[in-house]
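TODO from last week: model Tat (Twin-arginine translocation) pathway signal sequence.
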Amino acid sequence: MTTRRNFLQQAGLLTAGILIAPSCMVAKADTKNIGIQLYTLREELPKDAKGVIGKVAQAGYREVETFGYSDEWGFFGMKPKEFAELLKQHNLTAPSGHFGLDPYIAGENEDMLKSYIDAAKAVDMKYIIAPYLGQQLRQSASDYQRVAERLSKAGEACKAAGLQMAYHNHDFEFQQMDNTTGYDILLSETDPELVKFELDLYWVVRAGLDPVELFKKNPGRYELWHVKDMDKANQKLNTEVGSGSINYKQIFDNAKMAGVKHYVVEQENFAMDPFQSIAQSYTYVKDNLL
């Protein structure tokens, strides 16, 4: 099965959780913003990308988050304008995308970010998200300081283009180094206006941390969440939201403190039909968490 890391490597990108937070004016969040990270359907997309997008809309989602864009491959084999038109046909939007930024972060490809900005604007995105850091970029605290510097520079370029830079975590960022963590460095050494964070709640819990404590320490920094549940028997596996061990009701009760604007459902493995799975997660989020 394709993993995120393997996919990014294959695409040449390593080497070369969706809703507006409830306000005091409304009793219930607007479900039109529930989204899905399309990496969830990475096995199905190469077979019939247009059909997959249609099934995502049928499941109830109104937003998608992309992954794996390149100038050669586009968005799942489609040029940005073609992909944007497909989304429009299904009453979908793509406010955010995961773009492989390792070469840019390493200082090897300054033009890469511009190509991503152009593609994002063509699809009317708001967020360009760094989804992963290769091991060579995160060996020390000073490495993370360099990452923060490059993310800040990317944030300036995104802001100038009317976009927002953001960073998506796994669990390695929370490992201790020099009495701190890589994640703390990224938070403290980036401007909150230039770099937002997409908090992957599964990876936070898997790292042994409490997402609500992160909200308290860094209010307003987490404009996007990845919402995927942890299998009760094996924490290395995902399951449908509401069927696992993560206390999502407590997390969602504190959504306003986090500053969240988009909840992006994601799942990386299945024990049922993937399209049945994503519909089940959507329904649980809509009916039980918002």
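Done. Residues 141-160 form the longest helix (20 residues).
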